[in-house]
């Protein structure tokens, strides 16, 4: 996996059916049904590195294969 910009992460998560981002108390979040996904703050993370992306995808219940195969 390659690093991804926060903007591209949000765009891709929307393609997986997530809505947002919405303001949270410390971090913004996105939602899909009852699943609430915390995403990095825009002023702290310019790029999301593979290790953090993997954690986000696990929380979002998106497999690495699904993520890789959804690239356009």
Describe this entry's structure for a reader:
Helix content is 38%, strand content 22%. With 72 residues, it is of the alpha+beta class. It has a single domain (4-69), classed as Hypothetical protein (Metal Transport, Frataxin, Chain A, 2-Layer Sandwich), CATH 3.30.920. The two termini are 15 Å apart. A three-stranded antiparallel beta sheet has the order 2-3-4, covered by helices on one side. A two-stranded antiparallel sheet has the order 1-5. The model has no long low-confidence stretch (mean pLDDT 89). A hairpin with a 6-residue loop joins strand 2 and strand 3. It has helices at 6-15, 50-60, 64-69, and strands spanning 4-5, 19-22, 29-32, 35-38, 47-48. The chain is built from three helices and five strands, in the order E-H-E-E-E-E-H-H.
In short:
This protein is α+β, with helices and mostly antiparallel strands. 38% of the residues lie in helices and 22% in strands. It is globular and about 30 Å long.
Low-confidence stretches: none
Structural class: alpha+beta
Fraction of helical residues = 25-40%
Physical arrangement of strands within the biggest beta sheet: 2-3-4
Overall number of structural domains: 1
* Average pLDDT over all residues: 89
SSE arrangement:
Blueprint: E1 4-5, H1 6-15, E2 19-22, E3 29-32, E4 35-38, E5 47-48, H2 50-60, H3 64-69
Antiparallel strand pairs: 1-5, 2-3, 3-4
């Amino acid at each position: 996996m390659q690093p991804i910009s926060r903007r591209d992460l949000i765009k891709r998560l929307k393609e997986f059916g997530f809505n947002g981002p919405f303001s949270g108390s410390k971090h913004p979040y996105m939602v899909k049904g009852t699943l609430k996904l915390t995403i990095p703050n825009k002023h702290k993370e310019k790029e999301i590195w593979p290790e953090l992306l993997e954690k986000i995808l696990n929380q979002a219940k998106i497999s690495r294969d699904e993520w890789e195969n959804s690239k356009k």
